[in-house]
Design brief:
Blueprint (H helix, E strand, L loop, with lengths): L10 H8 L5 E4 L6 E5 L2 E5 L12 E9 L2 E9 L1
Parallel strand pairs: 1-3
Antiparallel strand pairs: 2-3, 4-5
Length: about 80
């Protein structure tokens, strides 16, 4: 988990390399939701349930973790 993943350009590759061997990298700071899998690693940002800033909606992330599997679900809030 990291708060600020750095510039948007190359972000997924950069955090994937920084946290090599992890099943998921969860970051914040941008308030923009992201649920993406890159080379077997989940790159996740919950967005924000309170302050959406530039995001189209308020969101949160639910992670189911078990039996060696991570299942992310982005939830859009009203």
């Amino acid at each position: 988990m990291v708060h600020d993943p750095g510039p948007a350009a190359g972000r997924e590759e950069r955090v994937g390399a920084r946290f090599r061997g992890c099943g998921a990298v969860v970051y914040g700071h941008t308030h923009l939701p992201q649920v993406e899998r890159l080379d077997g690693v989940w790159i996740l940002n919950r967005g924000s349930p309170t302050d959406r800033r530039r995001a189209p909606a308020r969101t949160m992330l639910v992670l189911e973790v078990g039996a060696g599997e991570i299942v992310p679900q982005l939830v859009t809030l009203s």
